[in-house]
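Cross-posting from the modeling subforum.

Setting up a comparison between two proteins and wanted a second pair of eyes on the formatting. Protein 1 (sequence, then structure tokens):
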Amino acid sequence: MVTRKKPCTEADSTVERGLPPAYYQLHALIETLRALQCNEDELCALLAHIRRNGKVGSGVRREIVALLHSIPAMRLHAEMDACFEVLEEAAA
């Protein structure tokens, strides 16, 4: 079993060749998760602003919409599907 104690902190843009396809799919998934995580602080700040003011003003609304458009949710979904697919192929 894989130990889950060591975090995946290295932002390795150069990927080794010759590894199983599942490795590359999981690597791509990790990069997308990191991109998602980059938006957390801004979303939390906007959430706190709404809580303090009790409303969503037009400026905050614009910021939220812009931020939502920048979140790679579709890419995350596609990469998760690809991970499942490559894992099924490895099991065959």
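Protein 2 (same layout):
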Amino acid sequence: MKLPIRSRLVRRPKKSVNPVGDIVLGMINAFHQSAVELRARISNVNPAGFEEFKDELAAVLTFDFIEKDGLNSKYKGYLVGPNRDYVLGFGAELDISLAYKTFMSGDIVKI
């Protein structure tokens, strides 16, 4: 005796679909964690006027950065390129974000 077609189908439970994959998610999480740790090491962000940097006039900010050895270093960050439209002074967290952006884009000089 043959069973009807419907009862012969084996239904498997649906798997959750991860479109980016576990490796990519791990990389994104690692980047986020290092960004959080780097931002925590930036403090005392202050405006420092304007200076010539990379052939353009740039707003300058100074900030303290805690190095891996625990020593406090002072840096100048230049708001150039895509960062030039930002303005300092609207809150400590926003200023730290600007210092982080200059740090990550390489537009900094140790003083």
